[in-house]
Amino acid sequence: MLAAWWGRARALRAGPGPAPSVLALPALWAEGRADIADFADCPREQRRTPHAMRADGSQKCFRCGHETPGQDS
After folding, report:
1. Which DSSP category does 32 fall into?
2. What is the DSSP letter of 10?
3. Is the pTM of this model over 0.85?
4. Exposed, middle or buried: residue 51 (CB in 10 Å: 0-12, 13-18, 19+)?
């Protein structure tokens, strides 16, 4: 238990990791490690809702969780 507490304290002192550079975001998106947020038509809710857009063309609705496959899926 002491080791877990010590590890947590060390992580809190270290702070958050470095944020990715703005220039690195397109590369992260192309690799599938980041999503773009945008509005799209949700087939389940029958209205425009915020979605996560993935590099393969698939989408995920933030409201209901419905996933629409992309052309590469």
Report:
1. T
2. H
3. no
4. buried
**Would you mind telling me the total number of residues written for the chain in this entry?**
73
Report the amino acid identity of residue 4: A
Distance CA 39, CA 51 (A): 6
- Which residue did the predictor score with more confidence, 21 or 65? 65
Whether 29 contacts 42, CB under 8 Å: no
* CA–CA separation, 41 and 45 (whole Å): 8
pLDDT tens-digit readout, 25-63: 778 777 877 788 899 999 999 999 999 998 888 999 999
- The pLDDT, as a whole number, for residue 22 is 66
User: Phi/psi of residue 19, each to 5°?
Assistant: -75, 150
Reported as type and span, the H/E element at residue 61 is strand 59-61
